[in-house]
Design a protein that fits this description.
single chain, 298 residues, ten-stranded mixed β-sheet, 10 helices, globular
């Protein structure tokens, strides 16, 4: 049985898929399964996947009708057999020691989640755009006890599902799934997991190279479906309330929600912004809605 289950959703990714898969299969840590869910691709993706799966038994491919990345990731979770779960994307590149560094840290600290740093680069020029690193004050510890950082725990990582090695039992025990949304479907999953983790360990090394500037990507369509972030925030709110931690996590929840809301609205027109404001005040109590929207939608 593999120690790590890597879940890779893909859709019409023929241009970058081989480079991405290759960087996974060349990992120095080898005890993993790579579960690839093809979400109804219409390009040459299927042929590429069939070629790889015939050469490496660690790779398994499943082909579905086009339903979106959230459904593909949820399907991958059903198939996963490893002790740890990791999500990756089909157009990014992974350092050859990524799994080794993250698994070693996870075992040494017995952390529920282990995270790493990453670099965003321009797809055309290949130049570095920026790097994500966990805020420095978290790095003075061997591992982060989430109960000791409730005021800012959601600032420890961005909302993307990748860059995280997660104990599968955390996901399974709480039945955490990706929301079926056209965008922001990973916000709830990522922060719900953080909410339910007791300990988080950090690899400060750059282990993922995130490709930016791909034509047709979801990030190019920000603003068209910005109401999705409200549904994601509401789902996270419900999970935090049900966990009995809302008062402890309120400050961090509001800060993270406001930051994500502001980002999603950055390319929205005025009509869409008005719709989102109405949705927030219909979905949340007035005081909380005001805290979420002040200086953003007022």
């Amino acid at each position: 049985m593999p120690l790590i289950s890597i879940i890779l959703p893909t859709y019409n990714a023929e241009k970058y898929l081989s480079e991405s898969i290759g960087s996974v299969l060349r990992q120095t840590f080898t005890n993993f399964e790579l579960i690839i869910i093809d979400d109804g691709s219409t390009d040459n993706t299927k042929a590429i996947l069939n070629s790889y799966s015939s050469e490496d038994k660690r790779l398994q491919c499943h082909f579905c009708s086009h339903q979106g990345a959230a459904n593909a990731r949820n399907y991958g979770l059903q198939l996963a057999t490893g002790k740890y779960i990791m999500f990756i994307d089909s157009d990014d590149i992974y350092h050859k020691d990524m799994l080794q560094h993250m698994f070693t840290k996870a075992v040494q600290t017995n952390a529920d989640m282990t995270i790493c740093s990453y670099r965003k680069f321009d797809n055309t020029t290949k130049k570095t755009l920026w790097e994500f690193r966990t805020p420095r004050h978290f790095l003075v510890y061997d591992r982060v006890e989430t109960c000791e950082h409730e005021q800012d725990i959601f600032s420890i990582v961005p909302g993307s599902p990748w860059g995280k090695l997660i104990k599968k039992e955390i996901i399974n025990n709480h039945d955490i799934k990706f929301q079926n949304l056209s965008s922001c479907n990973d916000f709830y999953f990522s922060y719900a997991v953080i909410c339910l983790c007791s300990t988080i360990a950090i690899c400060d090394q750059i282990l993922i190279y995130y490709r930016s500037g791909i034509s047709g990507s979801i990030s190019e369509k920000r603003g068209l479906h910005c109401e999705n972030i409200v549904y994601a925030i509401n789902a996270l709110y419900s999970t935090i309330v049900n966990s009995g931690k809302f008062e402890q996590l309120k400050k961090s929840f509001i800060a993270r929600s406001r930051e994500s809301l502001k980002f999603e609205l950055s390319k929205a027109n005025e009509t869409k912004r008005t719709e989102v404001r109405s949705l927030i005040f219909n979905m949340f109590k007035k005081d909380l809605a005001s805290e979420l929207t002040t200086d953003i939608l007022n």
